[in-house]
């Protein structure tokens, strides 16, 4: 055989194998990225209307801005965890058949009719444990989870439960989330950062994050957010998930407390409407060395112009000017609204709470608040395709993770 011909032929074979290998890698990458559940965790955040751009991962040990660090913490994936699922089994909750479905089997464009003091009206769907769990063209039918991923399909089986998952940022080099498992660990960090006040202001979304933090600090899933003065009977009624859900239990929640042997004050002030938020000015102005997180706007139909006008006045009263120099370690953070779950009533989806509405409002607020050097904690990726028990609210699984993100931010930037 001619030696020259042999070398040419060998080079051609190597080149052909290399090209084939790259084609195979590309094929696997595309198909793995488009699988919803693979290897036990959720790989891609997909919503019916909104797709999130991938985060540009910075080089290792890059110095973040406040906003950059929060973005890093909130861009990630939910990873399935059997250990967490067992630990939080009592915190996971799904409405029963009467609360979620209609006797006629209609779903999607209908509202539930079963309503009590503890069960609000929801979008009628198909119960995930039913033989007919797929809502297809507004009627419950029998379809597999895979077949129910179609136009006109709604399926609670495909929504992941945060109580069974752990949130991990994509950029593990720069922003691994430290989980604070007890009050002493949190207190050591707060003392080091010289933080003396943790202040939560806003609607039910911030109240639930507050509730998650209280449960985490107290190490008590059953009643960690409830007043010690609550009766034994009420504590049973409001146990576990009901600390988030049951309207009656809101009056039993701790609203202000001290931790770390009295060295750190914590307070939650409920301010649902823009017209109410300025009532918190006096308390915040009297506090020093504080971390203040708030969210507002959902009860005012996500009206950005109205929100901006109100907050301009609010920040001026707090002396939080656009050209201010941050001192005393005091900082403000804004949290976005959550993406809606499948149970959100159609009248709200069609009005002002669609995924597109939430995304637009959050983007506008992020741009606006950057003028005040106020970073934004986005919950959009964390709530996208995640189970919500009424279409608006989420339980301990999400809110404990938000509490950890809040604490990690304090550790880095306070």
Question: Would you mind describing this structure in some detail?
Answer:
This protein is 36% helix and 13% strand. With 414 residues, it is an alpha/beta fold. The strands form three sheets. Strands 9-10-8-11-12-13 form a six-stranded mixed β-sheet. The N terminus is likely disordered.
Question: How confident is the prediction overall: mean pLDDT?
Answer: 86
Protein structure class: alpha/beta
Distance between the termini: 74 Å
Main β-sheet description: 6 strands, mixed
Tally of individual helices: 14
Shape: globular
Unreliable stretches, pLDDT < 50, 5 or more residues?
1-8, 25-61
Radius of gyration (Å):
24 Å
Would you list the SSEs in sequence order as H and E? HEEHEHHEEEEHEHHHEEHEHEHHEHH
Can you give the helix content as a percent range?
25-40%
Portion in strands:
5-15%
Subunit organisation of the chains: single chain
Order of strands in the sheet with the most strands? 9-10-8-11-12-13
């Amino acid at each position: 055989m001619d030696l020259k011909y042999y070398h040419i032929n060998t080079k051609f074979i190597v080149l052909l194998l290399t090209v084939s290998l790259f084609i195979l890698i590309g094929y696997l990458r595309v198909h793995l990225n488009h699988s919803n559940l693979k290897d036990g965790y959720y790989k891609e955040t997909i919503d019916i209307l909104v797709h999130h751009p991938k985060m540009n991962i910075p080089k290792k040990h890059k110095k973040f801005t406040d906003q950059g660090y929060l973005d890093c913490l909130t861009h990630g994936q939910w990873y399935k965890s059997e250990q967490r699922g067992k630990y939080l089994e009592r915190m996971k909750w799904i409405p029963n058949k009467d609360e979620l479905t209609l006797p006629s089997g209609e779903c999607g464009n209908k509202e539930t009719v079963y309503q009590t003091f503890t069960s609000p009206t929801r979008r009628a769907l198909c119960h995930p444990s039913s033989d007919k769990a797929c809502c297809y063209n507004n009627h419950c039918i029998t379809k597999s989870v895979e077949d129910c991923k179609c136009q006109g399909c709604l399926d609670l089986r495909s929504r992941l439960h945060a109580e069974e998952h752990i949130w991990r940022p994509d950029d593990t080099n720069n922003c691994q989330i430290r989980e604070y498992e007890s009050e002493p660990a949190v207190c050591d960090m707060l003392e080091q950062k010289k933080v003396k006040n943790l202040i939560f202001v806003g609607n039910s979304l911030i109240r639930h994050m507050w509730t998650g933090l209280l449960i985490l600090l107290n190490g008590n899933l059953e009643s960690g957010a409830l007043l010690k003065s609550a009766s034994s009977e009420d504590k049973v009624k409001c146990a576990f998930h009901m600390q988030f859900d049951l309207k009656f239990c809101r009056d039993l929640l701790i609203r202000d407390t001290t931790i770390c042997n009295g060295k750190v004050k914590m307070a939650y002030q409920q301010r649902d409407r823009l017209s109410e938020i300025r009532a918190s000015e006096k308390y915040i102005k009297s506090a020093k060395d504080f971390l203040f997180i708030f969210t507002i706007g959902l009860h005012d139909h996500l009206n950005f112009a109205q929100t901006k006008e109100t907050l301009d006045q609010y920040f001026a009263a707090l002396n939080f000017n656009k050209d201010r120099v941050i001192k005393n370690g005091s900082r403000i953070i804004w949290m976005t609204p959550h993406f809606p779950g499948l149970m959100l009533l159609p009248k709200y989806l069609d009005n002002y709470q669609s995924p597109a509405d939430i995304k637009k409002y959050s983007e506008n607020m992020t741009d606006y608040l950057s003028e005040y050097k106020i970073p934004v904690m986005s919950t959009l990726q964390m709530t996208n395709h995640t189970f919500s028990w009424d279409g608006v609210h989420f339980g301990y699984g999400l809110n404990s993770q938000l509490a950890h993100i809040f604490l990690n931010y304090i550790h880095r930037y306070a």
